[in-house]
Structures are given as C-alpha cells and as structure tokens.
Amino acid sequence: MSLITLGTMAFDAIETPFGKVDKIIGGSAIYVAYAASNFVKPVQQISIVGNDFPQEEMDELTRRGIELEGVEIVPDKKSFFWSGKYHIDMNTRDTLVTDLNVLEDFKPVVPDSYQGAEFLMLGNLMPSLQLSVIRQMKVRPKLIVMDTMNFWMDIAMDDLKLVLKEIDVLLVNDGEARQLSDEVSLVKAARKILLMGPKFLIIKKGEHGALLFHENHVFFAPALPLEEVFDPTGAGDTFAGGFMGHLAKTRDISFSNMKTAIIVGSAMASFCVEKFGPERLKEITKADIDERISEFVQLVNFDIDLV
Ligand code: AMP
Fold this sequence. Notes:
Layout lengths: L2 E4 L3 E7 L2 E8 L1 H9 L6 E7 L5 H9 L2 E8 L6 E7 L6 E7 L19 E4 L4 H10 L6 E5 L2 H15 L4 E5 H8 L4 H9 L5 E5 L5 E5 L2 E5 L13 H16 L4 H18 L6 H5 L2 H15 L7
Parallel strand pairs: 1-4, 1-8, 2-6, 4-5, 8-9, 9-10, 10-11
Antiparallel strand pairs: 2-3, 6-7, 11-12, 12-13
C-alpha cells in the first residue's frame, strides 16, 4: 500500500542545552519517510533539494523503500536550511534561520507512478504547494493528512485555510492550534478547527503527549517519559510518519485505529528525540519499535473497580 509524502529535505543547524550541530540532514519529509518506511513500502517522496544534498542520504532512503522520483534536484541552488535553538525545557524553541533556497521556486509534480496512492501525507511546507499536490491527484486518496506550523500561519494563513477544506486530518502543536483558532482552551480550539474542514484533529503537546479530536470524541495518548531528551527536532514529523505508516499498513482509517496510530506515532517520536537529527531513526529495528510500543501499552494500562 503506497503512501505519498510531501515536505522538505533540508540541512538543519540545531542547538539544544545538550549540544550543537552546524549541519545535519533534516526536513519534514525526511523524518516522515524514515518513520513511515518501517510500516509501509513504498513511501513515495515529493520534495526538492539543491546540488549540496548528499548522494549517500539519497541512497539510504532508496535502500529503505523510499522512492525519489518526485524529488527534484536543482543543480545551481542550495537545499532548504533551517536553524533552531531549544529552550531549557526542550518543549519550546526559537527558529533562528529559515533559508528557503530551492523552496522559493518549488513546483511539486506528482509523478505518474505515484498516482493511485491511497494515503497522502502533506508534510510541513508552503500551503499553496500542499494544495497543488492534492489537486494533481487524479483519484482522491483515501486519507489526506496535513502538518503545518506557525511559520506558514504567519505568512500564508489564507492559503492554509484553503488546504484545510480539502484534508481529513490536521496535525498541529498546541501553540499552533491556539494561533489557528484564536482560542486559549484547546477544547474550544479543536471545535473551531474541526469546522474549518478536517474531520480529525491531532494536537501535539510535546512531552505532554497528543490529543485526537473527532466529532464529540477525544482521545489522549501520553508521551513516553524519557530520561534523556537530546534533540526534539523532527519529533512532530516522526510522529506523523509513524501515525500515517500504521494507517497505511492496516488500511483502516476508523477513529479506533487512529488511536492505535497515535500510540505508534508517539513511540516513533520517542526514538527521534534520543539523538541529533534523524540519526536514531536510522538505527532502530522492528524489535526496538515493538518493544517501545509495548512500553506505551504498560504506561497507560490500568484497571478501575468502580464501587
Ligand atoms: P519538527 O521539529 O517536527 O517541527 O520538524 C523540524 C524539521 O522541519 C526540521 O528538520 C526543519 O528542516 C523542518 N522545517 C523547519 N521549518 C520549516 C518550514 N517552515 N517548512 C518546512 N519544513 C520546515
């Protein structure tokens, strides 16, 4: 069952209270692809890179069943660059630099071989580009999930609202949900956002887990309490990749299966934060993932005897 992922492939510079890297592979589509490829193949990537993006990274993606026909390589430009610095709580960060570079003229094209994909993950990217990919699909995918961020809300809110009308699931963090809805209460925010288009809304709360809203239902999944969080970059995208990977693998888009998908996404995100960039995601095996998912089951499993 194929899954299309749209997003950035980037270089990142990251500073956390535990260390600093000046140039590491990143980008929303990289994290989504690494996470999702544990569950579904092929993952069909749509993105853009410059002449500086390492061939070894492309080869590694291919080796994992990630198709790159939809990745444009621009010979005379640099890849997207993002730099961020985390605060001491690791839940909040400042974006220091966003250099769009190749993204400035990006016109994503859905290759013919990607047509017919049942699952479409619109990773964090300009909303107009997310919309253009939806419009290029000859048959509407069974499930369209969108991630976005405050950066696009600040500069492209009208376009973002157009995409919301076309999607099934929106993934945002708590701050973004508040910004999008103009509400402080997340429950009120969810109610408003669900009126903007998506049938499902996931609000990620970093180390405090994630909430899934659908009609009048709410489900909460905690984040695994980790002794050490090294670098949260990409945790949101990794969550999205695990969530989407599980849904595409099982081909079941019911609310109850989305609850499982949220646990899978949370488990994948918990690996991502253990090392800088996507390094940890490259190391883990199916056995590691299964073990981590059972830790989640233990974490939230309890009996209540009401008298
Ligand atoms: P996350 O920590 O899940 O928000 O994802 C961080 C990743 O998103 C980094 O690897 C960045 O390269 C990428 N990124 C940062 N800003 C943007 C943006 N405005 N659009 C698309 N991707 C971005």
